[in-house]
Specification:
By secondary structure, the chain is an alpha/beta fold. It contains 19 helices and 13 strands. The strands form two sheets. Strands 5, 6, 7, 8, 9, 10, 11, 12 and 13 form a nine-stranded mixed beta sheet that branches. The termini are far apart.
């Protein structure tokens, strides 16, 4: 690995920290024009440090005998890069990892720190590169799996220690690349053949005939069929969320938090592009993104429009299906957004009032006999089970819907489905399905008086 790759990784890490940038967006922007091998190595370093930061900071605190907040940010990031290479990049010789990491002090004008960096990293090597795990079980799990202690406690309480450990262990490494075949333009077999001829490793997803796992792709946007709209990138959990909405050809569907649009696209395909999918978002640039995607895919039933999902619009007709895939804490997508690991518990739980308001608003659009879907990409009972139970307790006009058989391998509790990454090799996700059995008295009065 060349020095400039480490320097680029350091600069990106500093920018992510200072600007609170999304790592996936920043890396895509900064590395778009770079050599593929260079981009891959930088990406591995940046994501590796971000997802292991809890562990790396614990090591820094152990060897410096001071809180990491007392170190200059540049020095802290340099040490994170050094410890990461020594612990998790076996192909890098220890001496090279230490020497090249020390050189980073020059790149960020922290020459005075090179002695400290060198001494700490070499001592770590001499001591066998072992994690100094504490005796406390929660703190030890936090350090081993790079999860904040509050997250260890919450997952253990919600899912049990064994399942929580599997969940933490599956939160590392690159997430799988999964695509949805646009069955309005091609077939799974035709697309598979086209991609394999281009050197892509294509793996069918058992039980999901229009989903494919791809590997050895290079830039996905340059793959045959992508620019023609024959497929689009969508994680399997997201595809499942759209599929279990139960949409049928001719339905009227509301996707209240639709951007970037993949669930709207999949519902439109399940409907054979017959009916209407109203894809709402509150930001104009995201509406344009949905419109461009629908046009490329050739889906004419999608209608993108500005709307605040938390605000009820009384003149909007009732729908057969309403999807509320609400803004959430993202605890199911740690592999994709590793900086989420550094969030505070309070900031994640603070989303609950907005999530419940969107669910309340979405419910008012569902016609009798219609279906309401509540979903998050978070693994957090406060955002998930608590919201579903509170909604049912307050809304006797809704009842839980039947769970499809293909979801039985996930964690199922009544009509609540939690997908862990190790269930399907997909993102962590939560769904709850409601069927409206009747209108509430208040809604009947409002509709009849308008």
């Amino acid at each position: 690995m060349k020095v400039d790759e480490r320097t680029t990784a350091l600069q990106l890490l500093l920018e992510i920290e200072r600007q609170q940038s999304y790592s996936n967006l920043l890396l895509r922007q900064r590395l778009r024009e770079k050599d593929a091998r260079f981009a891959a190595r930088v990406t591995a370093l940046v994501y590796g440090v971000l997802e292991r930061r809890v562990t790396l900071d614990a090591l820094i605190a152990h060897y410096t005998k001071k809180p990491v907040s007392k170190l200059d940010l540049e020095v802290r990031m340099i040490l994170q890069l050094g410890f990461y290479q020594l612990l998790y990049q076996d192909a890098v010789p220890d001496n090279a990892a230490v020497n090249e990491t020390v050189k980073l002090c020059y790149a960020v004008k922290k020459v005075s720190a090179k002695g400290l960096v060198n001494a700490i990293l070499r001592r770590f090597v001499r001591e066998g590169k072992k994690l100094p795990l504490p005796n406390d079980a929660v703190r030890a799990a936090s350090m081993r799996y790079a999860c904040p202690e509050w997250l260890v406690r919450r997952w253990q309480k919600a899912y049990g220690k064994e399942e929580a450990e599997r969940l933490m262990a599956s939160s590392f490494g690159p997430a799988p690349l999964t695509v949805r075949v646009n069955t309005q333009k091609t077939t799974t077999e035709e697309l598979t053949q086209k991609l394999e001829e281009a050197g892509v490793l294509v793996t069918p997803v058992q039980g999901f005939p229009h989903a494919l796992h791809l590997a050895h792709t290079g830039n996905v946007e340059k793959l045959p069929g992508f620019s023609d709209g024959e497929f689009y990138v969508q994680d399997l959990s997201s595809q499942i969320c759209a599929m279990v909405s139960g949409v049928q050809p001719g339905d009227v569907v509301y996707d209240l938090c639709a951007a970037p649009g993949s669930k709207s696209f999949t519902m439109a395909l399940e409907m054979r592009d017959e009916g209407a999918v109203y894809a709402y978002d509150q930001y104009p640039h995201k509406i344009r993104l949905i419109e461009e995607g629908a046009q490329k895919l050739g889906l004419t039933c999608i209608h993108a429009a500005l709307s605040d999902a938390a605000v009820w619009e009384e003149n909007r007709p009732l729908a057969d299906v309403v999807l509320c895939d609400v803004p959430c804490g993202g605890l199911g997508i740690l592999r994709r957004k590793p900086e989420i690991r550094m969030k505070k518990l309070e900031s994640i739980d603070s989303l609950a009032p907005l999530q419940r308001q969107i669910l309340e608003t979405g419910a008012r659009y569902v016609k009798p006999g219609g279906r309401l879907v509540y979903a998050t990409c978070s693994l957090n009972p406060v955002e998930n089970e608590d919201a579903a139970r509170a909604f049912l307790a307050a809304h006797p006009e809704f009842e839980p819907a039947k769970i499809p058989d293909f979801l039985q391998s996930a964690r199922v509790e009544g009509s609540m489905v939690t997908i862990f990454p190790h269930h399907f090799g997909s993102d962590g996700f939560f769904f709850f399905f409601f069927t409206r059995t009747k209108q509430s008295k208040e809604e009947s009065f409002c509709r009849s008086s308008n």
